[in-house]
Amino acid sequence: MKNFLEALKRFFKGIDISMRESATSLIEHELAELENAFALLTMSMFSGLPFPSTGIVLRILPYMEREVRVMSKRSADLEDIFAETLSHFDID
Amino acid sequence: MKTYFFIGKGGVGKTTVASSFAVGKSFKKNKTLVVSLDPAHNLGDALNKNVFGQITKVSDYLDAIEVDIDEMINNYLKEMSEKMKNTYRYLTVLNIDRYFDILRNSPGIEEYATLEAIKHYLTLPYDIIVFDTPPTGITLRVFSMPRISIMWTNSLIDMRRRILSRRKMVENVKGPIEEEIDGEKVRVPTEESEDPVMRELFAYKSDMQALMSWFSSEENAVNIVTMAETLAFAESKRIMEALRLNNMKLRRIYLNKYLVFENVPEELAGKVEEQEKVIEEMKREFRDVEIKKIPFVRVSPQGVDALYSLYKDYVE
Q: What is the pTM of this model?
């Protein structure tokens, strides 16, 4: 009986996690896009585009670790961007 | 404190006029600092003293410095590299040295360093600070930088707010957002008050606002050093326009290397005529601005005494 209740609990917890995941997946995708855009915008000089205010970059770059990683990951995933986009809309 | 910028084309005599002005003010017992921001320094030549890289006493009330912009840039990058080594847990993400090479040569870095230098000297306890500036183009970009930076910072702040609000949404549903870096769990900030990027953006914005309001205050004045020539006049008009855009006050125009003859030599008759014509146009164009003529001298004044006599006769 105890095992059954435990399994039931895990089952509902699984449903809860999955619902939370699906509720936030689009927002998380948007968040990654925004973070990527933020990094691309502020560090455009590294891809050859001049940024009008270098001072801002010098100030914030030390704290941009997460954004830089998101940006690196996004550029690595670019080859499969179509599949990734489709996956967000549950299209197989 | 009062600040005076001397601005103009290369080779018109900015350094001579600026240093003469500084010497004159110091003779009136104002504690004065004259700062050369021009990478092609010759303030030391004008003062007959080596003032490169550090504030050097020239006379009782006068100090001078030729700012080493390259050294400043290197120091900023070094400071930033140290900060990054402390804050970046996952250094392999980017090759920092390569990024710094790009940053060192990126457009705008010189203007940024110049602006930082100005900001630094404004905090020093002087009655008067005289800035001898790089040629016009760079100086005008430096003057515009606070205004443009504020616009950019505002847009970045908006964008950052959007990022933080999305993070907050995710956090509300799924609990704190954590990243695992090298086996260590790090919480990602979701509030403005705890986000270091936001903090830096606000700090930068407030620095730029302070500079912008100083530039447009009554305590700051810009002087154009130029020559009575058609092209130089055209440039002066552009300077005036740029100053107006940044809400800065033009105090005086110095017409340097002004040709004065008892009998005009035939070869220079056209030049003298152009000179008079330009002055007339200038008076019409810059009605509220005082125009001072400094005659062409055979030998450039060097040393405190020579600069003071130039000040008494023409610059004051």
A: 0.83
